[in-house]
Structure formats: C-alpha cells, structure tokens
What does this fold into?
Amino acid sequence: MKNTINYFYNLYPENIHQNEKQYKFKINNNKYVFLPCYRPENEIKELQILSATLFSQGIYFHQIISNKDSSVVTFVNNIPYVLLQIYIDDNRQVTFEDLIWFSKIKIPLTNELLKKDKWFLLWSEKIDYFEYQVNQFGKSFPLIRESFSYFVGLAEIGISFLKNNNTSNEKTLSLSHGRIKSENTLFDLYNPLNFIIDSKIRNFCEYFKDYFFKGNNIAEDFFYYISTLGLNYTDYILLYARMLFPTFYFDIYELIIHGYIPEKELLKIIQKVDEYEVFLKRLHNYLKQFVAIPDIEWLSKINT
It folds into this structure.
C-alpha cells in the first residue's frame, strides 16, 4: 500500500499502520487514513467540497484528498479507496451533547445528491428486497426465518405511519450520518464519508436505538434530549416512525446474509424485543402531548 500512496498522492510515509482495510500514517505531524469507500464518486466529490467549506469556517472535519489525477477515489485491486487527512483523531465515544452540537451545524440544504430524506420510498424498497432475499435464501438462516416476519411487521407500521401523515413539508433537515452508533468515536463523527443530509432527528434515533440494544435504559435520557431539540409537528412524526423502523435488526441481518457475522448475533436483538415494546409504548404516550398519533392496538395492550 505504501507504493500506492507514494504514486497517487506524492506522499512518502515511513510507517503505515493497518487495521483491517484501513491504513493510517503520519507525515510531519499530519495524520492520514486511507480507507475503502463505496459511495458514488460524485457524492464523495460533493462531500469534499462540503467538508472544505466547513473547515474554512473553523469546523475541523477530516479533509478528502484528491489523487494525482484529481480524483477523490483511487482503486486498489478493484476496491475504491479514499484518502482523508485527519483533524480530530480522538477515541472518545460520541455523546448526546456531541449529536446536539452536530445537528446545529449550518450547511446549504439544497444538495440533492446528499439528501436521503425520502424514507417512505427507501424503506418500502428495502423491505421488498429483504423479503425477496428471505424467500430465496431463508432456509439457510433459521433464526432469520423465525424472526423476520415480526420485524417486517414493525417496519410496516413505521412505513404506514409515514404514508398516513404528510411529512414532505416542514421537516427540519440538517447534516447527519448514514449511521451513528453508541460506540462511535469523535473520529467517526468528524468523518465526512458518512455524511448525508436528512431529518435532524435521524442521528438521535439511530444512536438511541443502538444504545438501547447494547443493554442501556434509554427512556429518560431520550425524552430529555428530544425536548431540547425544538422539534415541530413533522419532526415528531418522523421521530416516531424512525423509532418504529427496526434498523437495528436489518443492519445485523445484512451482515449475516453477506457472511460477515454469525446468525447468533441476532439473539442480542430478539432477546430485548419485549423491553423495546415497553419503550415504544412509553414513547407513544409521550408524543401524544405534541402530535395526533393513532393507537397501535397491540402496543396499547402492553403493560408498562
């Protein structure tokens, strides 16, 4: 990999530290990481421009470095790699306060390439594809076969909730991440390769869902922090739909299907479903203060 970095970037590190498919090195106290990135090249170019603009405003996101051909992507053995210059190399885990700060960063919200806010369409297509996969390969994954229908049902409640509420207007968009998890660090928070434009509640929902299924009680913190966000009616609708949609299950499902982790990892989700249903009922009752949301029959029968 050293020869690749020499040739494409005119950089000559003495030592390169490899962690899986990431390669970190330092030159004159400047830190870099060379890592795979499968986003479309035109999106990466937009992220390069965005992170450079914010950097000039004193927000020190990692910077995307172009290669000698002025491309943001370098292919190594047919794998697309991107070089980042690192500005925040901190292993401190992301906190709720970090997410609040991040959600307040002002950016132009007109970049259609980076917008990922059409949840109804995205989720519907995802469920259709997963159902096709399970029909084709489900016999090889008994735990998926046994649990899949429940989580698809939960997803469809979230999708129908979007369908029955007009969320196309007045949603509050902000800079977000494709996925943010409770074990992510400041290095991850400042990595532009995971940036998207989406509802301001996306990061909070994904963080708290992950935090819950890592064994934490999230209710009080969740209610407190969303009370500080200044959400409007549409934001509350989106928040409820996203907490219903089980990304925590589907993320693991995809890793299992592609052979990255064993199927037994799903047990960490399945074993906490009853607790999560209790949380969803508490959330439903909390949100009724702000929005008109219909009762979910099976949820209303749960004892809290």
Remarks:
- The two ends are 55 Å apart (CA to CA).
- Residues 96-300 form one domain.
- The CA atoms of residues 73 and 82 lie 5 Å apart.
